[in-house]
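To: structure desk
From: M.T.
Subject: fold request, one chain
Message: Could you run this one when you get a chance? Sequence is below, nothing fancy, just the single chain.
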Amino acid sequence: MSSDEKQVAPRSLAEALRAKDDGSLAALLRARPDLITPVPTDLTQLATRAGTRASVIRALERLDRFTLQTAEALAVAPEPADRGTLLALLAGDENDPAVVGAFPHALAALREQALVWGPDDRLRLVRTARELLAPSPQHPSPTGLGPTVAEATSGMSPGRIQEILTAAGLPTTHDAVSAVASLTGLFTDRARMADLLGAAPPDSLDVLSRLVWGPPYGQVTADPASRLRWLLDRGLLLPTAPGTVVLPREVALHLRAGRAHRDTQPLPPAVEPAATHRPQVVDTTAAGQAYTSLATIEELLKDWDEGGPTVLRAGGLSVRDLKRTAVALDVPEPVAAFWVELAYAAGLLASDGEADERYAATPAYDEWLELPAAARWTRLATAWLSATRTAGVIGGRDAKERTLSALGPGIDRSAAPEVRHRVLTLLAALPEGASASPDSLVARLHWERALRGAASSDDLRARLARWTLSEAESLGITGRGALSAHGRALIGAQPSAAAPEARTGTGMEPGTEPGSGPGDKLPVHHHRHHPAPPPQPRSAAELASAAARADKLLAPLLPEPLDHVLLQADLTAVAPGPLQRPLADTLDVLADVESKGGATVYRFTPGSVRRALDAGRSASDLHAFLSEHSRTPVPQPLTYLIDDVARRHGHLRIGSASAYVRCDDDALLNEIIADKRSQGLRLRRLAPTVLAAQADPATLLEGLRSMGFAPAAESAEGDVLITRAHAHRTPPRTAPEPVPDGPPSPDTTLLGAAIRAIRAGDLASTTPHKPTAAAPGRNGTLPRTTSAETLATMQAAVLTGDTLWIGYVNAEGSASQRVIAPIKVEGGFVTAYDHTADEVRTYPLHRVTGVAELADEQA
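Reply: Done. Structure tokens follow.
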């Protein structure tokens, strides 16, 4: 590198950022959105924020395994390191071609996220990242390497260092610094190190083999064995504390053949197909499950139509209520918890907020019921994709050992949407109709986010991935484990025609090097290295478009609602498929559901017919309804049942006294009083046709019905009361907001405005300016001038068109520097073009701390 090039090399991260173009800054802010929350005042503040511990940890957590390994290798390389040294730490002596191919893109990713800066011959890892990744006794390096010879001998006496040189066959030196350099030179010379270790006893080599891959620290006694003494005498092991020795980094790297990691992973693990089905089978299976999911949600909220379970004091459903819900839905409790949470996430279910707080359907549920089936499904599926509430953790314990309950607090997992989207994207990269091996999916996710946990069943991302596969199948996004066509449309993925994922498992662009044959399967590294970035937030228009495509693909696969049933002589009706809503609603009142499945069986009973009569239907209405909607003749037993119940319905009238029974047939009243089952109602005759009771009307109604009578309630005016199903609804409620995994990714408009503001602020803080007479100006400090000087300078700049550098304190007391071109000064205000804000603004003169002219070369 020439001397001119060395002169322009950045001396700090701020200078490196200053040299970036707007596109590179936009890529940085998009990858690390926490850096513009709030927008930095200039590039120096941006660099400072990029080096904070919280921000660096967050950036490291979002690196794939190989990019993280590149950062770890740079943390143990000499600082600054050149590109060749860093590549050697990754590729080793064998110069692994896969590592060589992936390395440029890993380094570019670290540069893009401002974790690495400097030219190729002076690469530097930001200080905080080096502190996190470099080895120390308290925090061992992920590479398993120990300190360098210089670091390990920093407290050693000069005489002892000279003794080590002599034992290692090196000439003594005049000072400790040159002695350490000589020993380091020996350990980094492969040929001389091979000769030295060739003379080592086998037992000593065995000691080194146990420490070479870490941890590099070991314990020794006050009188070490001969195999240890041989190593200690030659500096191959160095003491760090009484009874503790360490394998120097240079020695370990020689034994590792130059590799910083035992297992360098430049390529993502393949997502292995588990089984392959015809796409048509996958789509029809998923569509059937999608329809089942709609029926399940309807059944759940119909069961809670008159008010569901009460809300626990701490929030959520009780364990007993969840069990009852599971029994009602005929599913296991974890599955019931998933459906409850899904309805809540879609805004169909909420608490009513009343004194006796209960869960119930929201008004949005009634609107949802009116939508076509496919549109109802897309609303559920999109709510699931973006929800952070995670049903899989229900039943577990929080940090305070409290049980996590359905609909309760503490079950948001901010990583859930990203993991769901990524799992479905990986499925979309497989050949159409192929399902994925869960273990290979988990391994892939761990490669893409290497720092977020080890690959174990206890890791949250692993559990989220497995829950995603199960929930997507229950919801009908996948069928038989493979992504359906409507599921593919929902996430915005295109069909996978060539099935490259089955061969490479990358989920990225397919292909091999041009001209490669069957025996040469070296992947194209610039396509293979990086995993897909986290899903960027889609606009409302994009979400609506994806939902519309999914709706269009799913609608033809869903069964058409039927307008008829099949009546049978055993007082049952068979619905051979889903029924149209008016027919289903009426039949739910007139009959009881006996069994479900491909066909639903309804049974007519005296109680169910009375329920329809109580709802205001007459016997003639019921006969006409059944005749209209039955494909078979109405059986005679069913006609008799309706007529018999209708004849007795309302013959007895019950109203409020406390309660009374009225009937024109006094013989029937005599029968009631004589029946021993009526004793609990405490009836007494007030008149030949009237009985009084001490029970309330509702209890009296139920009591007489249990005795086989068919009483009807009446109003104070003597009219029969028609009891219709009461649908309890909550006040209008919004769906729960997802808990974001950090600041949201900025859109293009925000990025452009933020970059302009940062550039302008940097211009204000770095532009040279002339010193004022009152107080010499210096970069980074606000100018100070008197009010008269400020006004005079402003007025002069209006006439000359000069640009000024000012200090300004806003109404909140926040001070800033600005570069302005004054346009008008009057009434105690200056109107100027503000280069910092890139717009014309008006400032009160009394808030300007001082003013200075820009230097001649900048004016």
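Reply (cont.): Confidence is low (pLDDT under 50) at residues 1-6, 497-532, 773-779. Let me know if you need anything else for the meeting.
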